[in-house]
Amino acid sequence: MSITETRVATAGAELCVQTFGDPADPALLLVTGAASSMEWWEDGFCARLAAGGRYVVRYDQRDTGSSTSWPAGAPAYTGADLTADALGVLDGLGIAAAHVVGISMGGGIGQELALHHPERVATLTLLSTTPVGPAPADRPALPGMREDVARSFAEPSPDPDWSDPAAAVAAFVDGERLFHGTLPFDEERIRAIAARVVARSTDIAATMTNHWILDGGGPDGVAVAAISAPTLVLHGTEDPLFPIDHGEALAAEIPGARLVPLPGVGHQMPPPAMWDVVISEILGHTSG
């Protein structure tokens, strides 16, 4: 299946956007997590969604891939701009509303879109993420990240030489290994994706730095219970960053939401072993 690439101007940035399938089909917008270019939504995954009758849209967020980049450590934008960029992609492609699929930080963006721009969100699919906004009084405290993951944030290793492609790829592989679940770790596949990411990134140091230091804007007082879009929650049972309790909370608090646990999956893009389940669930959820 052919891939069409274009560039879309948003407020303050120019984003690289790729599409799969027929523009006449229902649009499905894929939103990546922090420090992740669109390459992590693998070609084969996107092609199978398109073959199911969806117009699949993926894009490089600011400071990833070949979209606009800022110096590492000095992003001149906020988390709110990343949410606005998702709308800008839809506007640039002439899409009035899309089925939004977001993972991790992208799941947070999806929730923000559904809360504040409900007319643009036909359905919402949330992977490996946690509720935005204030918690209801009856929600138990959600568990924190696994000890080794918490330690990696508290005591980060020295940055590699990001100008060395081999070192950058190795850093990606190590990071993916830390966050994967109990399914076998396919190092060859991850290394191949990481090599493509590094090869087409404007500034890999900015990619690996800037999203983590953004001003997110803070809670705005709107809880996920206000989401009206039909919502599917896909969450790994072995997620070390947001344990599955986070997915359970989303499914319990968003009216009508449904949770599908992904056995053995960690905090990662759905691996090919789970594509049959994940793609079937997304196509079924977006078929209305």
Structure report:
The chain is α/β, with parallel strands linked by helices and 288 residues long. The protein has one domain: Rossmann fold (3-Layer(aba) Sandwich). It is 33% helix and 17% strand. The chain has helices at residues 43-51, 79-92, 105-116, 147-154, 165-179, 187-199, 204-207, 245-253, 275-285, and strands at residues 3-10, 13-20, 27-31, 55-59, 98-103, 121-127, 231-236, 258-262. It has an eight-stranded mixed sheet, with helices on both faces. Helix 2 (79-92) packs across helix 3 (105-116) and helix 5 (165-179) crosses helix 6 (187-199). It starts with a strand and ends with a helix. One of its GO terms (molecular function) is triacylglycerol lipase activity. One of its GO terms (biological process) is glycerolipid catabolic process. InterPro entries: AB_hydrolase, AB_hydrolase_1, AB_hydrolase_fold. This is AB hydrolase-1 domain-containing protein. Residues 26-267 form the AB hydrolase-1 domain.
What is this entry, summarized?
The protein is α/β, with parallel strands linked by helices. It is built from nine helices and eight strands. It has helices at 43-51, 79-92, 105-116, 147-154, 165-179, 187-199, 204-207, 245-253, 275-285; strands spanning 3-10, 13-20, 27-31, 55-59, 98-103, 121-127, 231-236, 258-262.
